[in-house]
Amino acid sequence: MTKILMTSVRDDEQPAIQEFAKKHNVEIVTSPKLIDDAVDLTADVDGLVIQQRSKVAPNVYAKLKANGIKQIATRTAGFDMVDLQAAKENGLVATNVPAYSPRSVAEHALMQIFRLLRKSYRFDHQVANNDYRWFSDEQALEIHTATIGIIGVGRIGGTLAKLLNALGATVLGFDTNPRDEMKDIVEYTSKEDLLKRADVVSLHVDLNPTSEGLLTAKGFSMMKPTAGLVNASRGPVVNTADLIAALKDGTIAAAALDTVEGEGPVFRTDRSEKGLADEPQIQELHDLDNVILTPHIAFFTNLAVKNMVDFALNDVLLILDGKESPHTVTA
Length: 331
Description:
NAD; seven-stranded parallel β-sheet; single chain; D-2-hydroxyacid dehydrogenase; oxidoreductase; D-isomer_DH_NAD-bd; Rossmann fold; NAD(P)-bd_dom_sf; 35% helix
């Protein structure tokens, strides 16, 4: 019987894992540990599925090869945690899950767009301090009167555009490969024009050398002082120091961040006692009353979790059977 190791497994993934194992007559061994700390378990399995934000330790690849592993599947869209060159050198086919549920992230972004337009971050802080007043500068924009800019109109950004269009918003888009089928929904324009016109800018790009540092002080200076930013893509897409400065000095009004630079030591940990003194940038974002932070959970829905498990495991079986996966990623 084929045996597959899955690392960094959460309790909420177990029903989908057990269902897949039963349906496909495979044995699936799970571990809550990162592959870095569970690599010895691969001596007794045929395939491997991981999930983590930190880089896979450099010594892992040779150990996987020595243990006879032929592939490494990440059950995430992002695959920057895998050194693709090291994987190739050790005979490992790398795969990801590029579209586990575009709707999950798009719906999260839409929720955050509404929260920024309705300035709920202001009321959250006021009510937490038992201040129930409201002020003239807290007047909201109705969605059908707003202009929303989407940077990266791919699977997720395109899904968000359709939701916004259905609500009557004006949707601007910037993408290096505009799609003809979206042109009745999205007004494609330059990044600069989008930043100048949008009431909220929502980021939906992959992390790669061209998208890292996509938004810096120069970009924030182009935005309206009343505008908000949503980042539900990857943290390094935004220069955090520049964002903090823009939020503090009123260059932009607010930000809703599901991902930030350097989130690894913080997100999915309990900091209620330790605090954030060792992560000063995240501490600053946490303390600002015009920031909404969520711990990288935009993907976290029933359908997305099942698809992440199913697609990654299907890729393992394809590769072990000598077939090609449509989700193979290369250096």
